[in-house]
Amino acid sequence: MPCDDFVIDGYSPATNEIIILYIMERAGGRAYPPPYQANRGLGGLIVSTGKSQILNSLDEMTASGIQFVLGREQDYTQAIVAVPLLLYGKVNGMISAQSYQPDSYTHDDLELLETLAAHAAIALENARLFEKMQEIADKDPLIKPMLNRRKFYELAEHEFERVKRYPEALSVMMLDIDNFKLFNDQFGHKLGDLILDIIAQVLIENVRHVDIVGRHGGEEFIVLCPATDMKSATDVAERIRRQVEASSLRDKNYKVQSVETLKGDIVSGESLHVTVSIGVAELDETCISLDALVERADRAMYLAKEDGRNCVKIWPHGKVTAELKLAK
Question: Which of 298, 301, 251 is CA-nearest to residue 276?
């Protein structure tokens, strides 16, 4: 069929918005418009009615009453055929072919596009479900914003190899919640889960979007900081430590329930505070692998534990001191 422009729109029921997914056009130069409310435009009509449309002239386009939203390129369009993306009886979007010549489309073209749309709707839904399952597989099952250990190391290994090829600073932070077992033993694992959530939120608030943050296991978290030297990483670690220390389980900023609802009157109305120990290591010429870099940060973290907890320690260049114990 004639096709100078080709558009695939998605529809979000949650926001009632039309979202441009794909545009191909002969004229070129069209910017992707932002999402728009589904109460206007050709996409809005198709989504709201679930019915296909053929408009074969500028007069028919004007008479339709549709407020076209794709910009100046509509000046070239003189014929449109548009069909809904239907899946399980619900409209998920629209496919539209447009021609710069009038009287370009027939009902045979419409049926062909409807057949294409039926296959496309299934493909798009499969892609959405795959993306959702992939996201679930990459996240920690308990703390949703956090990457799990497998995904963290996958991304971190890629970054480590990149820095090896194009040298720049790279640092790692290992963070452990102090006395976490005591919280679990005294107040139960539900409170422990709330503490993990607090730490995760503090980390997300204090790292950049380029940093890779994950749960290393148990009460340990890990952060890989690209283009970050020891001093900068230590400053961030200290800021995280201070914010955790200042937080309370009753702090409304963390949206957690009061302790009394978890364990009766066991805390006698007092707030519970959490602290963390953090170890920091920076990549240097003696560090030949990501595992070695992480181990250095891990040992610095244990040194923080040895030094009374609630502090930040850095990996000393050279050998680990004999006094450093590797057990908590």
Answer: 301
Q: Is the pLDDT of residue 273 over 80?
A: no
Q: What is the pLDDT of residue 144?
A: 67
Name residues whose C-beta falls within 8 Å of residue 17's C-beta, 6 or more positions apart in sequence.
11, 35, 36, 37, 38
Q: What are the structure tokens assigned to 221, written together?
A: 């978290």
Tell me if the domain spanning 149-314 has CATH number 3.30.70.270: yes
Query: Which residue, 277, 281, 278, is CA-closest to 320?
Result: 281
> Which amino acid, one-letter code, is at 248?
S
pLDDT at 135: 66
Pairing of strands 170-177, 90-99: unpaired
How many angstroms from the chain centroid is the CA of residue 221? Answer: 18
| The predicted structure's pLDDT at residue 37 | 86
In angstroms, the Cα distances linking 75 to 9, 78, 288 are 20, 8, 61
Q: Token pair 């999402």 is at which residue?
A: 35
The pLDDT, as a whole number, for residue 52 is: 93
What percentage of the chain reaches a pLDDT higher than 70?
Answer: 82
Fold classification of 5-136 (topology level)? Beta-Lactamase (3.30.450)
Query: Partners of 17 in the beta sheet?
Result: 12, 37
**Among 73, 159, 219, 282, which one carries the catalytic annotation?**
219
Q: Is the pLDDT of residue 83 over 80?
A: yes
Q: Select from 157, 171, 284 the least CA-distant residue to 237.
A: 171
**Cα separation, 276 vs 257, whole angstroms:** 21
Say whether 219 is catalytic. Answer: yes
pLDDT mean across residues, the chain: 82
Name the segment(s) of the chain with CATH classification 3.30.70.270: 149-314
Q: Which residues pair with 12 in a beta bridge?
A: 17
Cross-strand bridge partners of residue 221: 175, 215
Q: What percent of the chain has a predicted confidence (pLDDT) above 90?
A: 41
| pLDDT higher than 60, residue 33 | yes
List, by residue range, all CATH 3.30.450.40 domains of the chain. Answer: 5-136
